[in-house]
Design brief:
Helices cover 54% and strands 11% of the residues. By secondary structure, it is α/β, with parallel strands linked by helices. Among the domains are: 2-20 and 453-687, P-loop containing nucleotide triphosphate hydrolases (Rossmann fold), CATH 3.40.50.300; 28-65 and 419-446; 69-198 and 403-408, EIF_2_alpha (Alpha-Beta Plaits, 2-Layer Sandwich). β12, α21 (657-669) and β13 form a beta-alpha-beta unit. The longest helix is centred in the middle third of the chain and has 83 residues, at 315-397. It is elongated.
Amino acid sequence: MNTLKFDQSSSGGGDSGLPPEEHGRDNSIALDLERYWHEAMGLKYWLAGIVALGLVLGVLVTLLSTPLYQASARLEVSQVTADVTNLDLLEAEGQISELQYLNTQYKLLVSKFMATRVMDAGNLPRDERFRNAFSIEDEPRIENAIEETLFDNVSIDPINQSSLVDVKFSSPDAGLSAEIANLWVQEFVAANYEKRFGANIEARDFLQSQIAELRERLADSEQELVEYANANEILVLNAGGETGSESAGQTLVGADLQALNTALAAAVADRISAQAAVVGGNFPSSDPRNELLTKLSEVEAELAVLRANFGPDYPEVQEKQAEVNSLRSAVSVGARSLLRSARIREAELRQQVEAVKQRFLGQQGQGIRYGILKREVDTNREIYDALLQRFKELEASGAGQNNIQIIDLADTPVSPYAPSLIQNVLVSLLASLFIAAAVVYLKVVLSQTLKDPEDVRRRLHLALLGAIPRNTEGAMVDRIAERSSHINEAYTTVRTNLNFLTQDGAPKVLMFTSSVPSEGKSISALGVATSFAQLGKKVLLIDADLRNSKLRDTLKLHDYDKGGLVPLLANQQGNMASEIIHLEDFGFDFLPMGRTPPNPVELLAGDRFSQIIEAARGQYDQVLIDGAPMLALADAIEMSKAVDGVIFVIQTERIKLRGIENALGRLQRSGAKVYGAIVTKVSQNNSAYGYGYGYGYGYGYGYGEERDAEPA
C-alpha cells in the first residue's frame, strides 16, 4: 500500500453542501408559504421593479386622463299603494314586496330604455355640445353610439335604509353633466307616470269612441225594430223568454188565438154536456132546468102512491099522470134546446179559431224576423250599458298621483371627481402586487427542480440524509479536511444519519451515484469517507466512475493512472492491496480508477467487481464507492448489485424532479436498495426552508450565492 501526503493547498474543489438540521414541519402549508416567500426574496429586485412600474403608470394615467365632472340628482321611489277606486284591480302592485319593487326601479333607471328616452328628449344626436364632449362623430349608427355613451356614464347610488336614490352622470363638461342628470330623472318620472296612468287615459278615450258608436248602433236597431213591427201590425203584449227575445205567441194575434181556443174548448164541453142531457135527461148542475127534473121526480112519486091506492082510473091519478107528462115534455124540449144552442156556439167558435189561426200562421214568419231584430237591440243595449259603467269607473279612478318624485335636481359640479390620484395609485399598486404575486406563483409552480430539501421526502419518497451548503471559502477539499468547517460538520451529520440506517449501524458497502455528472457525488463520497475516518474507522474509498473520474482531478492523482481499479477488473489475479493509496490528510485508503477503459460496462458486468468488493468488505470497516452517474448508462446499475445500498446525490436547482424520479426508478427496478439522498449546493434561499447555516455552533460563516467554478 502506498501512503500519500495530500497537499491541501494545491487541491481544488467546486462542491458545496449543507447539513440536514431537521426543523420539524407539522404543517405543509406553512412550508409552502415559506417557499413562496423565499422565491419572492430571490426575485425581490424584479418584483420591486414591477411595483414601481405600476405606481409610475398610475401616476401617468392620472396626469394624462381627461378630468370628469359628476352631477347627482335625487329621487324618492315610493312603493305603489292599491287604488281603492279600481274595482277590477288591474295591477296587483300591493303583492310585490318593497325590496323587489325598489330593485326593479333601480334596474330601470340604468337601462337602455332610459338611455334611448333621454337621447330623444334631449335631441342629443343634434347636440354639438354633447357630441364634442364625448368625441362622437357623424356616423350611420350615431344613435347607438350615443345610447352606449349615456349608458356607460350614468350610475345610481341607493341610500341605505331609505327609498331615496341618487342618479349620477359624469362627463368632461360640468354643465352638461348636470343637464343630463336632471333630464334623466325627469324622463324617469314621466315614464313612470305614463306607465301607471297612461293606460287609464287611453282606455277612457277608447271607451268614449266606442260608447258613441254603440249609441248610434242601438238607436238604429231600435228604429228598425219599431218600423218592422208597425209595418207588419205586430203588437207585442209582453216580453217573452229568459233571453229577452220576442216570439209570435206573445203578439196580439197570438193572444186572440189563445183566447178563442179556450172558448172553443168550453163550447165543446157544453155541447157534450147538452148531448148527455138529451140522452140521459141530465142537465149541468148550474142549469135552471134541473128544477124541472126535481119537480118531475116529486110528481112521479106522488103518482105512484095514488096509483097504488086508488088505481089508474082514479081522477086524481089521471091528473097526476097529466102533470107528469107535461113535466116530461118540458124537460125533453129544454134538453134539445140546450143541445142546439151548444152546437151553434161551438160551430161559431170553430170558424173564428180557423180565421185567427190563418192570421197567426201568416204572422209566424214575421215573428222570427222580429225576434232577430229584438235580440240585436238587446245585445247593443247590454254592451252599451257595460261600456258606460266601465267609463264611469275610470272617471272615478282618475289619473292619481305619481309615486316617484324628484327631491333634488343636480347642481353644476365645481371640481372634477376623476381622475383620483390616490385611487389610481392604490389600484395600480394592487394590480402590480397581484402581478408580482403571479410571477412568484408561476416561478414556484413552473420550477421543476429541487429547491427545498424536504422535496426529497415529499416528492421522491426517500430519506433525507443531509443537505450540504454551498462553499464560498476556498477549496472544497480543504473545508472537508478541516474539522471545524461547516462543510465537515455537514458530512458529519450525513455520517450520523447513515449510522441509523440499520440496527448494526451504517451499511458496510455504499455506492454514491447521481442523475447526471457534476452534482457533487464525488465530493460527497470524499466527505463521508473523511467523516468515517475521523471517527476512527478503517475506510476505503473506491473511484468507480470509469467514464469520467472526478476524484482523480479533485485529489490531483494524475500520476496514478496506470494502476487502480481498472487493472484489477481486467486482471482476474491482480492484488488489490498493491493498488490502494493511503491519503494521510484524510485518514482513509483510496483505490483510484486508473486509466479510462474502452468498455466500462463489460468490466463491471462480470464477477470481478463483486470479488473486489467482497475482499474489501473483509479488510475495512467501511467501503464507499464513487459510482458513475445514472444518465442512460448501466454502469451504476451493474455496480449496485455488489453493494449493500446506494446513496443518491442531488444538486439543488439543476435537474428536473422528473429526471431524478426516472433515475431512481431505474435503480429500484434493478433491485438496488436506495437508502436515501444527499442534497448538495444548498444556497441561502434553500437554507430558508429549514436547513440554515451555523447548526447552533455559532461559526458565523458568511456564505455567498456564487457557484464554484470546478464541478464535483
